[in-house]
Write a structure and sequence with these properties.
The structure is a single chain. The protein has about 350 residues and is mainly β. The protein has one domain: Outer membrane phospholipase (ompla), Chain C (Beta Barrel), CATH 2.40.230. About 10% of the residues lie in helices and about 50% in strands. It is built from three helices and 14 strands. The longest helix has 21 residues. It starts with a helix and ends with a strand. The N terminus is likely disordered.
Length: about 350
């Protein structure tokens, strides 16, 4: 872990570009070796694990939370459930299959959003925050034929963008009624690299999968956010400094055994990530915080489709993962999730 912290950002960026070049070179060498080429066809490889915080997986969740930003204009929010909605889509561009080498490669674009809504607040049912993101992704996977390690894969996101937006009711109340209110514009471009063992792909049998990834900013000096003096009422906001994050994900799927079947797959998925807790003043220093995101439940496997509906319990603990609220730690979220994946 300590070694990862010491890696310079520029060095990691070079490694990302190197891995991308290797993917492209390996793909080029397979062009004439019994390869199949497809355009705008879904590859199903290296899709997001269910527990990935920001992904293209479609979810609708009903949950209890233990805190919100101190500037929220109602105080009884812990007495009712909140709604969190995840929307996303992956646009396949190119897909290569080489059966002779048991190798697959894909290139695609993606976009998504995460909305937090206080739907059961009686006055306006406000949208608290919306995060938007999009990017480009290259993925490669090699099947090994080994019964324990079925495949190994590499995902490279050469560029992605995220921007976040505070809800209108939240902002209007802050501007008019709170002297110290600040609106922080979280907006940045990043790259990411991740290695995967036992990617689920279209496998429907019992499988334990693991993924480890690292994300950094293309402009580390600019940080994760910027501000306008009008939106911070003249206050000077320091830039973020530790501009990288990393994560480990585990995914356990079962179609054989206790409380599962070939129709109802039991899934346990967990992400543990180490990322930056923002600080918007000179008094409280920014810090690195561990966060955990856990899903456990079942999804129904349709016979002739690789799209499935699932029902899950979700628990999250760590940094508040929404927009400018990422300066808050100690956040707890527990709820029920309907997933279309």
């Amino acid at each position: 872990m300590l070694y990862i912290y010491s890696i310079p950002i520029l060095q990691v960026m070079k490694k990302v570009l190197f891995c991308t070049s290797l993917l492209a070179l390996f793909t080029y060498t397979l062009q004439g070796q019994e390869s199949e080429h497809y355009f705008f066809r879904d590859s199903h490889i290296l899709k997001p694990f269910l527990s990935e915080i920001r992904s293209t997986t479609i979810k609708a969740e009903l949950a209890r939370i233990n805190q919100l930003d101190e500037n929220y204009y109602v105080s009884d929010y812990t007495s009712r459930p909140f709604v969190e909605v995840h929307l996303g889509y992956e646009l396949p561009v190119y897909y290569l299959v080489n059966r002779h080498h048991d190798f697959k490669f894909s290139a695609s674009g993606y976009l998504g959003s995460v909305l937090l809504i206080d739907m059961f607040e009686k006055t306006t049912s406000p949208v608290i925050n919306t995060d938007y993101f999009f990017g480009l992704k290259a993925a490669a996977i090699k099947y090994t034929g080994h019964p324990g390690i079925r495949n190994i894969g590499l995902k490279v996101v050469p560029v992605s963008h995220e921007s976040t937006h505070l809800g209108d009711e939240f902002s209007i109340h802050g501007y008019h009624d709170l002297p110290g209110f600040q609106r922080i514009n979280v907006s940045y471009e990043a790259w990411e690299i991740a290695a995967v063992i036992n990617d689920p792909d279209t496998i429907r049998s019992n499988l334990i999968s693991a993924k480890m990834g690292f994300q950094g900013l293309w402009n580390p000096a600019g940080g994760y956010y910027n501000t306008d003096s009008l939106e911070t009422k003249g206050a000077q906001i320091p830039l973020s400094e530790n501009n990288y994050a990393w994560y480990v994900q585990l995914n356990w799927q079962r179609t054989e055994g206790f409380l599962c079947s070939d129709k109802w797959m039991n899934v346990l998925s967990m992400e543990v990530n180490n990322s930056l807790k923002f600080s918007y003043d000179e008094v409280s220093n920014e810090s690195r915080i561990w966060s955990v995101n856990l899903y456990v439940g079942w999804k129904y496997l349709a016979e002739k489709s690789n799209r499935h509906v699932g029902f899950f319990f979700r628990y999250y603990a760590g940094i508040m993962p929404y927009g400018q609220f990422r300066n808050n730690a100690g956040y707890r979220y527990a709820g029920l999730s309907i997933v279309y994946q």
